[in-house]
Write a structure and sequence with these properties.
- The protein is an all-alpha fold and 231 residues long.
- Helix content is 84%, strand content 0%.
- It contains eight helices and no strands.
- About 6% of the residues have low confidence.
Length: 231
């Protein structure tokens, strides 16, 4: 899947979590979202109009972000962070138009959304691994919860990192910002290492050797890109 489609699909899946039972996450349109939210939140006509505008704004932001990714102007990590920021802005703006009872239900929907997205992303990652490393069906199924957990932790991590960055920008950054970046890098590595520890139990020795070789190759490519950007 192209990066642009990945960004748009993951975000729309997040918004469409209440429709998970019907598996309509892909290709859903704004009217479908509003219809599903009307059932859960009992939105007024005025609220539906406001929600429609907010969803369209989110769609425009993601389209622009997707174009930048396809053009090579934004890397995947930055794109994911910006996607999380756009989602957060949307959730806050949407929450502001709800009454207290609706906000309580919206909070519950947010928890459902996070879990739904993590499971769907984990399944996609597992399917990609199955093709790349020739995993059996049973191995692939065993990978799904491991990767779903990793996806959920990464989404939560990027959201918290975005909040931390906003605080650093407000206070001026400096040494404190560098320490925060180092800590974040360690946390990301910890999330990846925990997942790898579980995946290693699922892979055969030959599959794991290839997996490790691919990781080493990606690290070298990233190192070269970093050196080129500095040079």
């Amino acid at each position: 899947m192209k990066p642009k489609l990945l960004i748009l699909t993951v975000t729309m899946m997040a918004l469409l979590a209440p429709l998970a039972a019907q598996d309509q996450g892909k290709g859903a349109q704004v009217p479908q979202l509003l219809q599903s939210w009307q059932a859960r939140l009992n939105l007024t006509d005025a609220q539906k109009a406001q929600a429609k505008g907010l969803l369209e704004q989110l769609g425009q932001k993601l389209e622009q972000l997707g174009d930048k990714v396809d053009a090579g102007e934004v890397d995947r990590k930055t794109a994911f962070q910006q996607m999380q920021a756009a989602r957060k802005d949307f959730r806050q703006s949407f929450g502001a138009i709800l009454n207290d009872a609706q906000k309580k239900e919206w909070d519950q929907m947010q928890e459902e959304m996070q879990g739904f997205v993590a499971k769907r992303v984990g399944a996609k990652w597992a399917a990609k691994m199955q093709q790349q490393y020739k995993l059996s069906d049973s191995q692939t199924q065993a990978c799904v919860p491991v990767l779903a957990k990793q996806a959920g932790e990464l989404m939560e991590f990027f959201e918290q990192a975005q909040e931390s960055k906003a605080g650093e920008d407000a206070t001026g950054g400096g040494r404190r910002a560098r320490r925060a970046k180092l800590k974040q890098a360690q946390e990301m590595k910890g999330i990846a290492d925990d997942a790898d520890e579980e995946l290693k139990k699922i892979f055969t020795p030959e599959q794991w050797q290839q997996y490790e070789a691919d990781k080493a190759k990606r690290r070298e490519e990233m190192k070269q890109k970093l050196q080129q950007s500095r040079g």
